[in-house]
Structure formats: structure tokens, C-alpha cells
Amino acid sequence: MIRVLLADDQRLVRAGFRMILSPEPDLEVVGEASDGLEAVDLAQNLQPDVVLMDIRMPRLNGIDATARIRRMAAPPQVLVLTTFNLDQYVYEALKAGASGFLLKDAPEQQLMAAIRTVVEGVALFAPEVTRQLVDTLAQPRATAGTPAELATLTPRELEVLRLVARGLSNHDLAAELHLTEATVKTHVARVLAKLGLSSRTQAVVAAYESGLITPRLR
Questions:
Q1: Virtual CA dihedral for 161, 195, 211, 155, nearest 10 degrees?
Q2: Which residue from 113, 131, 110 is spatially nearest to 122, judged by alpha carbons?
Q3: 74 in Cβ contact with 45 (< 8 Å)
Q4: Which of 46, 113, 160, 164 could staple 187 via S-S, CB 3.0–4.6 A?
């Protein structure tokens, strides 16, 4: 059973999500938050597997709420629900540790598939959001050599970071590097620990911001 927390300041939106998710035998809505602070409190107390997070909420916005939730000892995955005109917030939410992004008007089946995807630790991005993200990451960034954190990574860990930033899953990483998935998970965990990060999506940001990799533009 995947435990889901709904965080949105509009009651009707939360009711709509609950109506969509409740009939699914493997999805359980365990709580609803009407603002960011309540989302953080409920995430701590209810220990959901996934938080559906709106960005614009009172008291504490979804970006800051995501950052607080992802700093918890055993944090849930956070799936940010956005609208096209809020794409300027996507990059900041990614840095905060969001596991993925989906448009609010996405089809019901896409929403349910997204929840099942991110709970496995796999990053997920709606195509519209991905284009905005690539545009943001493609902007020139001032760098002063290799960041000290990256210098602590072994050559193998740098290779793992590059592949994670390209969007490869643990299964794909194992095949690419001719390693077991257990070994890959260990490498990924060490990379995150050395960089002080809480999610693979934050590792993606770190790889782009450091210049370790650059977006592949058409």
C-alpha cells in the first residue's frame, strides 16, 4: 500500500485527488494539508510514502515545505503538482529535493502512474516541465573550478553521478557499468552522502550546476 499525503490550499482540488486515488487498491490517502506548515507536520506525523505538493500555499510555500520534508530522517518522496505558468518555480523545487513534477491537468492514469513511479525513487517529469528545466539548466553558470564536494568523489562515483544526471535508473546504471544493482545503490548512496544531498534529483542539479555535465539541446 502506497500512503499518500495531499497538500493543496484548495479544498476542492484535494477532494478531486482523493476521489481519483481512493478507488485504487494500492493507493491510500492518509491525510490532507491546506498549507505548507501543515504539510510538514503531517508528513512527520503520518509518515506517508508520497506527498502531492502544490507550490503556492499560505504560511509556507510548497518549495520550502518540500525542503523541510526532504530533510526528515526518513523522508517521503515529493511529487510537485504545477501549472504551466508556474514553471519558473520548477528549478527551485528540484533543488529542494522534489522527486518529480506533474501538471495539475494531467490525465488520471498519469497521476497514478507518477505516484507509483516516484515511490520507487525514480525521478519523473512532465514533458512540458522537462523543457523548462532544460532551458534553465542551459543558462551559463559561473563556476570557479571543481566544487570541493565533487573533489571528494572517486572516479567511479563521478561516473555514477554523470549517469544519474542523465536520468539512468539503478537498473540502467548496473547494465551500463556492469555492476550489480546492490553495488550501484551503494555508489549512489555514497555520492548523495558526500555531496550532502537527500535525493537523486538534487544530484542532477549538482551535476549541472558544477558543469560536470551540460544539457543536450536539440
A1: -50
A2: 113
A3: no
A4: 160
- Name the β-bridge partners of 208: none
Kindly tell me the sign of the dihedral angle through the C-alpha atoms of 201, 203, 209, 211: negative
Burial of 191-204, coded b for 16+ CB within 10 Å and e otherwise, reads: bbebbebbbbbbbb
Q: Which domains does the chain have, with CATH numbers?
A: 2-136 (3.40.50.2300), 148-209 (1.10.10.10)
pLDDT digits (tens, 9 = 90+) for 110-154: 889 889 888 876 666 554 455 555 555 555 454 444 456 688 889
Q: What is the mean pLDDT of residues 166-185?
A: 86
Within 10 A of 182 (CB to CB), how many other CB atoms are there?
9
For the record, the C-alpha cell of 85 comes out as 505558468
